[in-house]
Write a structure and sequence with these properties.
By secondary structure, the protein is of the alpha+beta class. It contains 8 helices and 21 strands. It has 2 domains: about 160 residues, FAD/NAD(P)-binding domain (3-Layer(bba) Sandwich), CATH 3.50.50; about 140 residues, D-Amino Acid Oxidase, subunit A, domain 2 (D-Amino Acid Oxidase, Chain A, domain 2, 2-Layer Sandwich), CATH 3.30.9.10. The protein has a 6-stranded mixed sheet. Strands 14, 16, 17, 18 and 19 form a 5-stranded antiparallel sheet that branches. It has a 4-stranded mixed sheet with strand order 6-7-5-15, covered by helices on one side. The protein binds flavin-adenine dinucleotide (FAD). Flavin-adenine dinucleotide binds next to helix 1, strand 2, helix 2, strand 14 and strand 19.
């Protein structure tokens, strides 16, 4: 490590915490990961869409997203594969004019790797789709099984020497010690990667970390057909989507329930919304088996940018949270950036736009 940080405690073993932990452990730090296994962990519920890299990122967030997408194949291979695959996506609509406009925007963003399928042609690539749809296809979009990615990262962290503590973490001594039951873990760096619960955790150290839970409900369908290589489907007219995994599974989501609070229940209205939007676009799924509805709490900030980096003016506390609706895609790369910053390494990307300082400075 460039800076000698010997002991680090990471609170939260979702994709964010797991990604920080593996890099720190590989770099030689003494890492403890604390995980409470709360209902509503976002990484378990996340769909897994990893958008294609963009040609000319126009904002710090786009730059981060694009770098994260470019780094994903390597990160997934290091984590043991994690069902990561570049499958492309179909941005679908019924009206030719809408497709033309989308084609222009998407081609500008992603280059020549886009193709247009006229209304009626997209069903050949995603057989459950309403026959009336056409599509703009972006070749570079990928999908990942977030839970498998997280498990692979944690295995790699353990192999590099990280230790694990199961239970609820609380901050003591102004964030210099992490307490889990009767055990106390003093640390030179404490990483708050507690997802939608990060604000409560930080409040104990007198910090305001503006992260709120945004509930998402998402359905998993079983189908008898071969689902290998099916693309992601994103209707231009809604924020819902469909994607497939190789085990005869189609995943369709999701609600975005801003203001839900940390309430991980499956609700009648949430499930109704997901099923309605799914069958509107993909009536071919009407006879699929509804296997499961997952519910996750996205860690959302007021400006929808993540919170990454040191807590200003605090000697030990770091943030790796607030990744909202894009955390499975951002997590591995963003986690690595935070880990490298803790080690004092030169940043590949400036973390300043993602710092807590952009809000009130963070003090209660
Ligand atoms: C329905 C849905 C669909 C999504 N789809 C996508 C997608 O297609 N692409 C994409 O990129 N992203 C997607 N996301 C977003 C993504 O899932 C999240 O941004 C990401 O998983 C957040 O990871 P995290 O590690 O910050 O949080 P989490 O995965 O929630 O992890 C936080 C962890 O901290 C633990 N914890 C909390 N408090 C404590 C404590 N006091 N002590 C110990 N442990 C604690 C929790 O148990 C939890 O495991 C989706 C999310 C949802 C809900």
């Amino acid at each position: 490590m460039s800076r000698v940080v010997k002991s680090v405690v990471v609170v939260g073993a979702g994709i964010a915490g797991a990604s920080v932990a593996v890099q720190l452990a590989v770099d030689g730090a003494d890492v403890v990961v604390v995980e409470a296994d709360r209902p509503g962990r976002a990484t378990r519920a996340g769909a897994g869409i990893v958008p294609a890299p963009t040609l000319a990122p126009a904002s710090p967030l786009e730059e981060l997203r694009s770098a994260a997408a470019a780094a994903y194949p390597g990160a997934a291979a290091d984590a043991g594969g994690a069902s990561f695959a570049v499958v492309g996506d179909l941005h679908v609509a019924r009206v030719g004019k809408d497709l033309e406009i989308a084609a222009e925007t998407l081609t500008a963003a992603h280059g020549t790797a886009t193709t247009v399928l006229a209304p009626g042609e997209a069903n050949g690539l995603f057989p459950y789709l309403d026959h009336a749809y056409g599509a703009v296809r972006v070749a570079g979009t990928a999908r990942v099984d977030g839970e498998a990615m997280r498990a692979g990262l944690l295995r790699a962290a353990e192999a590099a020497g990280a230790r694990f503590a199961a239970g609820e973490a609380a901050l003591d001594d102004d964030g210099r010690v992490v307490r889990v039951g009767r055990e106390r873990f003093p640390a030179e760096a404490v990483v708050l990667a507690a997802g939608a619960w990060s604000a409560d955790l930080a409040a104990a150290a007198g910090l305001v970390v503006p992260v709120e839970a945004q509930r998402g409900q998402i359905a998993h369908f079983g189908v008898p057909d071969d689902t290998v290589g099916l693309p992601v489907v994103q209707p231009l007219a809604s924020r819902h989507y469909l994607l497939a995994f190789d085990d005869h599974r189609i995943v369709a989501g999701a609600t975005r329930e801003t203001g839900s609070g940390p309430d991980p229940r499956m609700t009648a209205a949430g499930v109704a919304e997901v099923l309605r939007e799914t069958l509107l676009v993909a009536p071919g799924l009407a006879d699929a088996t509804l296997q499961e509805v997952r519910v996750g709490l996205r860690p959302a900030t007021p400006d929808l940018l993540p919170l990454l980096g040191p807590v200003p003016g605090h000697p030990t506390l770091w943030l790796a949270t607030g990744m909202g609706a894009g955390g499975l895609a951002l997590g591995p790369y963003a986690g690595r950036l935070v880990a490298r910053a803790i080690a004092g390494a030169d940043p590949e990307i400036d973390l300043a736009p993602f710092g807590l300082g952009r809000f009130s400075g963070g003090q209660l």
